[in-house]
Design goal:
23 strands, nine-stranded mixed sheet, seven-stranded mixed sheet, 623 residues, FAD/NAD(P)-binding domain, disordered C terminus, Cholesterol Oxidase, domain 2, binds flavin-adenine dinucleotide
């Protein structure tokens, strides 16, 4: 929560929260008081990337003080009608920062408001206890190998190393909560398991919101579990363009197959959710290829009327295996930088809340994800081809309304994807809880107001592109969080517009009666003829864009003019320093990336094990 000397901020945020709540719901379930909304917004504000916090505070102060000029009273002291007028003026302003400020507060207020019915205040979740989980680390630790980050890349690396008898310390910035510590895709999950509370954005002419996991298991704890192998033509492209060795389909196959077994990749044992089937039906009617994507899930169907599934995230699979093999896990510890002294790597880290610790190791595997890995390398003075070529799958959404029910509280994860135009364009259905629907309708306030009545007939769909644009990851002196920028090419904006158009076609074909595209001031679409109103190229800054797929910030390969690491993740020019996560993918794979990340992590770890003889000695044991 904010410092007491920021009481004006509390009052301004409270006035905003009450204004948004009032204009958003006439339903009895969302009546005042709205102090919980204020509390949530302030908590989230405290978590936002640190370099954005100052400008945001200044803009909020400006917004609050503006009222003085207009009515002699600060915004938070004005009567509700005047507040509403000021909000509307900023929301429709031509100044981007004014629109952004209102959208920021509105999205948080709306998310909290529509999460109220399902999320009562719960006790703080308990962290997982195990004799190999270090909770009070000594000021100095030693290990033969340190793995930084416990997402799919890091958990697999650490597990395979420990299972072959190596002395491994797995260091993770986030807490170690069980998978069941909160409802999946909820506001609680954002607070517990997302980096910066899920408020990360790639800056540029078109801002792209992105999210990363920050907990033991990384992104695998919060994702949908949709599995693809890397398409063979993508492997071929990486082999040719980036000179990556040992990357043919045949060489990768055993890694895919073993990972698929390890995390139980399988199709749904029961019918897909209605909203998912709608996408499939619409595409099939158009003659477009659509498929059910398998997931990493373990299902228990026998002897029960309510079959269940458990997502096979890293905290359910590779992390327990790692601990059973004797690996040591150090959660809530952020590695800040590292350097080499002789043959040893020295890591400087901070254990929550403020304990400074040092770790000494012979080898380091950096698996902190596509944004944090390049940031950590750059902070440690290693910058060659690091953080210069970030790629992502930019995504735009449509909320569709149908005449009949397609949504329910227990709808689960939609599993169909339309791949007719892949890798250029892919289409799918998203999590469509009332809170997410309300966020998807921020550009359509009238429809948002009716959500508590209409949500069971609504679902969110996406068009995702394989982008030609590039992004960068940079560290800023004095700030903890890295600055991420991304530039969409003109062709990307054309692809996104085309994606929106084709997605709308599928949805009308599947019987949708109203479509709400994620475009600022976008009009709703009521029939196929309305598709002509969609732009042919997305106007800069007018679309709500997001992504959950980030990669390619430290591409692998032997081409020294563009690769940060060799074909197996060793950082060029350094001994015993490896990257083994999403950063390695040479370009956007055009499919959900975790399957590629897992298989590459396995391949690279075995390459390391075959090359570097076992140096385990008692002196290396983690304290
Ligand atoms: C909401 C969501 C849905 C998704 N759905 C799918 C899907 O259905 N299918 C799919 O294939 N992919 C999906 N993804 C993407 C997938 O989860 C990621 O590609 C994958 O998790 C990346 O793995 P990684 O190991 O590279 O990094 P991450 O999973 O990001 O793990 C990195 C870990 O390192 C830790 N870390 C970072 N910095 C430090 C530091 N300095 N010190 C110590 N630890 C640090 C982080 O806290 C984190 O736990 C989704 C992602 C999200 C966010």
């Amino acid at each position: 929560m904010e410092q007491p000397n920021n009481f004006w901020l509390h009052d301004a945020v409270s006035a905003l929260a009450y204004s948004f709540a009032k204009s958003n719901g006439e339903n009895p379930a969302i009546q005042p008081p709205f102090n919980d909304l204020t509390g949530f917004i302030l908590r989230q504000r405290a978590q936002m990337p640190d370099y954005l916090r100052g400008p945001m505070l200044a803009a909020t102060l400006g917004f609050d003080t503006l009222g003085l000029l207009k009515s002699g009273k600060r915004f938070h002291c004005q009567p509700p009608e005047l507040r509403q007028r000021q909000i509307t003026a900023w929301k429709n302003s031509s100044a981007g920062f004014k629109r952004d400020l209102i959208r920021y507060f509105e999205s948080l207020a709306v998310l909290a408001l529509h999460s109220r019915e399902i999320e009562q205040s719960r006790p703080a979740p308990l962290t997982v206890q195990d004799k190999n989980v270090i909770t009070s680390p000594a000021a100095e630790l030693r290990a033969e190998i340190v793995v930084i980050g416990s997402g799919p890349g890091g958990a697999i690396t650490a597990c395979l190393l420990a299972e072959t008898g190596r002395d491994v310390l797995l260091v993770e910035d986030g807490p170690f909560y069980p998978l069941t510590s909160c409802a999946p895709f909820s506001k609680d999950e954002m607070l517990q398991k997302y980096r910066n509370g899920g408020q990360t954005v790639a800056l540029g002419r078109n801002k792209i919101a992105y999210v990363e996991g920050r907990c033991v298991g990384g992104g695998s704890e919060i994702n949908s579990g949709l599995y693809h192998r890397t398409p063979p033509e993508i492997l071929e492209r990486w082999r040719k363009e980036f000179q990556v060795e040992a990357l043919s389909e045949a060489e990768m196959r055993p890694h895919f197959e073993t990972c698929e077994r390890d995390v139980s990749v399988s199709p749904l044992p029961w019918p897909a959710p209605a909203a998912s089937l709608k996408l499939h039906e619409g595409a099939t009617r158009l003659g477009w290829k659509s498929l059910e994507v398998p997931r990493w899930f373990r299902y228990t169907v026998a002897n029960t009327h309510a079959p269940k599934g458990t997502r096979q995230s890293m905290s359910e699979t590779f992390v327990p295996r790692f601990l059973r093999a004797g690996g040591k896990l150090l959660p809530q510890t952020r590695v800040q930088q590292f350097w080499q002294e002789g043959a040893k790597w020295i890591l400087e880290a901070r254990h929550h809340p403020a304990n400074a610790i040092r770790v000494m190791a012979d080898a380091v595997f950096l698996c902190a994800g596509a944004v944090q890995t390049p940031a950590l390398l750059r902070r440690s003075g290693i910058g060659r081809h690091v953080g210069d070529s970030l790629q992502m799958h930019p995504t735009i959404k449509i909320v569709a309304q149908f005449p009949e029910a397609v949504n329910a509280a227990d709808m689960g994860v939609p599993v169909h994807q339309v791949k007719e135009f892949a890798p250029r364009l892919s289409f799918g259905c998203s999590i469509s809880s009332p809170a997410y629907l309300a966020l998807g309708l921020l550009d359509h306030p009238q429809a948002a107001r009716e959500i508590t009545r209409t949500w069971t007939r609504m679902a969110i769909y996406y068009a995702m592109i394989t982008s030609e644009g590039r992004g960068s990851v940079r560290t800023l002196p004095g700030f903890r969080d890295p600055l991420v920028r991304y530039r969409l090419t003109e062709n990307d904006r054309r692809k996104l517009a085309d994606g929106l158009h084709k997605l709308a076609q599928i949805l009308f074909e599947s019987g949708a009666t109203t479509l709400y595209p994620g475009l600022a001031h976008g009009q709703k679409l009521l029939q196929s003829d309305d598709l002509a109103r969609l732009p042919e190229i997305l106007p800069d800054g007018m679309a709500s864009l997001m992504t959950i797929h980030l990669f390619s910030s430290c591409p692998m390969g032997e081409d020294p003019s563009r690769c940060a690491t060799d074909s197996f993740g060793r950082v060029h020019g350094f001994k015993n320093l490896f990257v083994n996560d999403a950063s390695l993918l040479c370009t956007a794979p055009g499919v959900n990336p975790q399957g590629s990340i897992m298989a590459l992590a396995r391949r690279n770890t075995f390459h390391f094990l075959n090359k570097i003889p076992n140096k385990l000695s008692p002196a290396h044991r983690v304290a």
